[in-house]
Amino acid sequence: MPADTYDIVVVGGGTAGAFAAATTASAGLDTVIIERKSPEEAGHIACGDAIKGKSSFPDVIDLDYLKEESFTNRNIRRAVFESPAGETLDIPLSEPGAVLDRKRYGEIILEEAERTGAEIHYDTVVQDVTQADDGTVTGVRAKRRGEAIDYEAEVTIDAAGALSLLQDKTDFSGTTFDTNVNYSQFCSAYREVVDVREPVEWDDAIVFKPTEELGYLWYFPRTSTEINVGLGFQMNKEPMKLVEALKKDLRGRAEFAGATVKDKLGAALPTRRPYDSAVADGFVAVGDAAGHVNPTTGGGIPGAAKSAHRAANRAIAAIGDGDVSEEALWMYNHDVMTDFGKRFAAIDLYNIWGSVHDVDELVGIVTSVPGQQLADAVGRGGTDSMHLGLKLKTLVRTFGHWDTLFELARVRSKANELKAHYDRYPARPGGFETWREVRDDIMDDVYAITGADPKY
Length: 456
Fold this sequence. Notes:
Shape: globular
Largest sheet: 8 strands, mixed
Number of strands: 16
Order of helices and strands: EHEEHEEHEEEEHEEEEHEEEHHHHHHHH
Helix content: 25-40%
Strand content: 25-35%
C-alpha cells in the first residue's frame, strides 16, 4: 500500500481544518488536508452563518479577502427573541456582527490554506487510524478515488467534526483524551437558504424562536432577501420532524410567501462542554471534534478557528522539539480551557438547567427579565447591575416564576464557580485527575440543584 509522509495530517477541510493547516504550513511544516468532499462540494456545510466579525479569526490567512468575498451582511446590530405567543425581546449587540455565505467562506479558507503551502486531497475518505506499538497515533488510512493510501505524520489533527470517526478508531487507553462522549450531548440541526420576494425589515437582526423541545428556530439574513432559516433540537429529547416544524413556522410569516428554497442541508453538532482533554500521543482534536461550540447557540466557527490555531502552534513546537507526546501537546488543552473553554463549560450549565423545565415556563421567564441582563447572565456568566426601579418592576413581571428564578440564580453561582475552576486547569497532565474530581463535585451540585440527570 502506498504511503504519503507529512509532518502534519489534518482530517477535515472545515473551519478548524483549514486554520490548522494554514498555521502549520505557514511555519514551513509539510501539511496535508484530507477532505472527503469533491473540490466543487468542499465548503458546503450546514451552518447558521452568523458570526461576530473577522476579529473572531486568527491572522494566518488574508482576513480582508475573506471578509470581502464571504461576509454578505456586515450590519447585524441586534438579536431578536420571539416567543410562541408573539412577544418579542430586542437586545442590541455590543458590537456589530455579520452573516456570511458559508459555501463561499469554505472555499476561501481552503484556498488560503493552499496558498500558505498546504496540500489538499479532495475525494479522500478516512477509514482508520494508525498507531505505533506504544499507542502513539502515526497517521490515518484512507481511500482516495478507489485507491487505499496510508498517510503518515508526526501529528494528526482531527478536524473531522462532531462524532468524529477518528475517535471511534483510535485506542485512547492510557491517555487523558476525553471519551465521555455520547449522542445525548449533541444536537440535530437542519437549515435552508431561502430567497424572499421583498427585502425583510429585520435585515439588521438575528432572530431566534424557541421550539417545542429544548432548541430554537433561527432566521439569519445573509442579505435583505436571502435568509438562512433553520432549527435544531437536543438528541436527548423526543425527536422533532425538523423539516415539517420549519415549514410550519415559515407558513406563518408573511414575508416568506412565495419564497424560493435555494439550498437545504442537515448536520449534528455538539451542545456540550469542551472535551476535558483533546490530546493524546501524536493526536489533537479541534473544533466540533473537541466540543468547541457554544452549547446554547451552536455557534462553532470562532471556537473552531481559535482552537485549531492554538493546537497547530503547539504541534509546531512539539515537532520542533522532537517530542509529540501527550505531555508535549498538553498546553493546547490549557490554552482552550482558560480562554473560551471555561465560558462554554459555564454556559452548558444553563442547558442542563433548561432541560428540566417546561418550554412555556422558560419563555415566560425570558419575556419577563430585562433582555440585556438575561443575555449577560447566560452569555457571559455575570450580570449588569439593575437600578432599584428596574428590580422592582422585574419582581412584579416575574411573579409566579420566583422559585425557578431562585434556582437559576443558584445555577449561575455554580457557573461562576466553574469558570474560576477552569482558570485553574493544570499546566501538566499530572494535575488533571485532581482538577477533574473537583470539577465533577461542582457538577454534582448542579445536578442536585436542578434535579437533572447527569449529562456526563
